[in-house]
Amino acid sequence: MTVIYVDVLFVVNFFITFFLILVTSKFSKRDEKLWRSVLASFVGGLYSLVILWDDLNFLLSTLGKLLVACLIIFIAFKFRNFKTYVKEVSIFFFVNLLFVGIMIGLWFIFKPKGVVINNSTVYFDVSAKTLLISAFVAYIISIVIIRIYNNKIGKKELYSVTVLKDGEKTKFFAFADSGNNLKEPFSDFSVIVADESLFKNIDCERIIPFSSIGGEGVLYAFKPDEVVISSSFGECNVDNVYIALSDRVKKGEYKGIINPKILNI
What we know:
Blueprint: H1 6-28, H2 34-48, H3 62-77, H4 82-110, E1 115-118, E2 121-124, H5 128-156, E3 159-165, E4 168-176, E5 190-195, E6 206-212, E7 215-222, E8 226-231, E9 234-237, E10 241-246, E11 256-258
Parallel strand pairs: 4-11, 5-10
Antiparallel strand pairs: 1-2, 3-4, 3-8, 5-11, 6-7, 7-10, 8-9
Helix pairs in contact: 1-2, 1-4, 1-5, 2-3, 3-4
C-alpha cells in the first residue's frame, strides 16, 4: 500500500502540468507567459487532488476532464479565436495521453516502487532530484522532436502569406526558416522578410538591424494592418509582426521568409 501525501501529489502534478503546457506551447507555436503557465499549472495541481474524494468523481468523467483542460488552456494561452482554441486543447489532450501512455508502459514493464496511476492521475513517491532530472530529460527530448518536425514541415512546404496594409492586399509565398530570428527592437515583435518589389509604395517606419554570414546591416520595415498565413494544415491570423523589405529574398517560387515559431496552423 502506497501512502499518498497531498502536498507531494499537488506539487508533482503542478510540475507535470507546467511541463505539458510547455510542450503544448512548442507544438502549437504559442509564446506562453510565465505567470499564465504558473497559474494554469496551479489549476492542474488542484485537479489532481480529486482522486482523494469519491464525491468528486464527476470531474473524472470525459466531460469533466474536457472542462478542466479547456480551463487550463484558457488560462495558459487565453482565447484568440475558436479554431485556435480547439487546436490548443486538442494538442494538450494529445500531450497528456502521450505522457500517461509512457508512464503506464513504464509501470507495467519495470514495476517501479512509489508510482501510482489512478483515474489518469500520476503520483510519484520519488525524490525531487529524480523528478526534476526526469522532467528535464523528457523536455529536451520533446524539444528535439519538435525541431525535427518543424524543419521537416518547413522544407516540404511553402506558406501563402497575405498582407493587408492601408486597404491594399498583397499575397506571396514564403519559406519557413527557423534561422530567421529577426525582431523589431522596440516591440520585440517577430519579423517576416519579404522581397522589396512586393511593397514599392509602402512607407517603412522601422529599422531592423540584422547579422548574417554575409555581414551586418539594416532592413526597413512596416507594421501591417493584418497578416494571414495559410498552408495545407490550415490558416491563421498572425498578430504582432512586422514586414521587413529586402532585395535578397527573391528565389523564384517564394518571395518571403518567415520563422515557423510565429505560425499557429
